[in-house]
Specification:
alpha+beta; Alpha-Beta Plaits; 2 domains; 5-stranded antiparallel beta sheet; Ribosomal Protein S5, domain 2
Amino acid sequence: MQDSLTILNTQETAAHGVFEEKRSRFIADACHIDQVNDAVEFVARIRLQHPKARHIAFAALYLDANDVAAERMSDDGEPAGTAGKPILELLRHRSVADCAITVTRYFGGVLLGAGGLTRAYASAAATALDVAQYGKTIMCARFTLIISYPQLSLCKRAIALNNGSIVDTQYTQNVVLIADIPAVNARSFKTRIVDGLSGDIQLHEEGLQRSILALSH
């Protein structure tokens, strides 16, 4: 799978923007999704916030582990192709995946025409993406490590040196670590663990997982 860009904003902390055109108000909200059907839940949440809105168009784009895109969109009563499609095209153009965007329209009394609507919905969606928090989705190898307490600091260092992250830690008779390591670093990580840690250690590779790394502004 190729690395891709996504946004980190959740449904509760959706990126938000507003665009106005000829007295019509277009309110955009964008959030991260873990599957394409999450977009339906997000739209329902937005409808509760805007019960009097005339239209709530949306688009969603999700990439699975095989880089197969799943897409959904709706014009929500606007002329066909003037609302959901320009939002989806914006996601494609900016290469943003695992994302849903809604654009809520309050009609201002002036008809915009098909071209005007298309530009307005795209412009509104862009206002949300412009203020979103971004991360990079990468493929990681997930490892489960069972180690002794004296081995913990060296193990954490090996994870950090390979740009990995600790998903879970369990402290029992031994320490159980679950870590995600970028797939390109998996071999180096295994070598460092085997060569660097003395004593008994159990290292299990669980397969590939998608992981998100936050991008600094």
